[in-house]
Amino acid sequence: MKTRYSTASKILTIFFVILCLIWIIPIFEVLINSFKTNNAVNMDAFALPNSETFVGFDNYVKGMTFGNYPFVKALGYSLLITVVSVILILLFTSMSAWYIARVNSKFSKFFYFLCLFSMIVPFQMVMFTLTFTADQLKLNTPWTIPVVYLGFGAGLAIFMFVGFVKGLPLEIEEAAAIDGCGPVRTFFLVVLPMLKPTLISVGILETMWVWNDYLLPYLVLDRTKYMTIPILVQYLKGSYGTVDLGATMAVIMLSIIPIIIVYIFCQKHIIKGVAAGAVKG
User: Fold this and answer.
1) Per-residue pLDDT reduced to its tens digit, 50-79
2) Which of 51, 62, 172, 199 has the fewest CB atoms below 10 angstroms from its CB?
3) For a pLDDT cut of 90, what percent of the chain falls above it?
4) CB under 8 Å to 169, separation ≥6 — which residues?
């Protein structure tokens, strides 16, 4: 029996190592091409840099200074949109999930299923209507587009929070109410600290989504004034539409490094939060 489990474990380990390498290869290709000349990238994208094709950090400097829109400005807008959107999602969805889990009414059930339904609706079905609505409501700036992200990110967040809240002991909240805490104080002083594992996991997942999102900012934002990093990559073109692939790869690498670092250091919290939300309740 032990031999069988040991063999199965080795097979699974080999399988996941191969799967991991398959996922890493594209990132590795972007990295090596970010240090090569544009001609070298066009000739052989899979070749390693050599003495003739290696350009050091020239592509990174070129990518950050290319065109009329500075990279630092796009980085600032990406940070602003990501931070504000994630804060709004965590705050409002955690409160909504607490209400859904504790108030047993037809409205709360309907609202919960409505949030779950939003998870399966393709973005392409609503993107044209959304663009028109965002323009009418003045949600087409980096300071207001987080409201749109709140709507799209609420489904997954509420689903995870509800699963976790249902597993929290109700007696703690009842004791807080006996001590004089109202609903607001009970949530922020009692419930919210206990939601920490799921808060971290949801925050990381939503951060990766908002940071890497291209289509929503492209449709909603005024691109003559505001660009996020994914949008900026598209506009790294020279005269006659020529693309400097070396500089493009460098900018892509600069955009994915922060999110990779965040994920590496926080991946254990993602696993804990997802497991807690799935098992409890």
Assistant:
1) 888 888 888 888 888 876 778 889 999 999
2) 51
3) 20
4) none
What is this structure's pTM?
0.84
Distance (Å, whole) CA 155 – CA 3: 44
CA distance 90 to 80: 16
Residue boundaries of the structural domains of the chain: 2-64, 69-279
* Residues 6 or more apart in contact with residue 262 via CB below 8 angstroms: 204, 207, 208
- Separation in Å, CA 185 to CA 158, 164, 173, 191, 193: 20, 19, 10, 9, 12
Tell me the chain's radius of gyration from C-alpha atoms. Answer: 23
Structure tokens at 269: 């919290």
Give pLDDT tens digits for 174-224.
888 888 888 889 999 889 988 888 888 889 889 989 999 998 999 899 888
The CATH topology of domain 69-279 is MetI-like fold (1.10.3720)
Amino acid at 188: F
Listed as own residue / partner, the contacts of 118-122 with beta carbons closer than 8 Å and 24 or more positions apart are: 118/151, 118/152, 118/154, 118/155, 119/155, 119/156, 119/159
Where does residue 218 rank: exposed (0-12), middle (13-18), buried (19+ CB within 10 A)?
A: middle
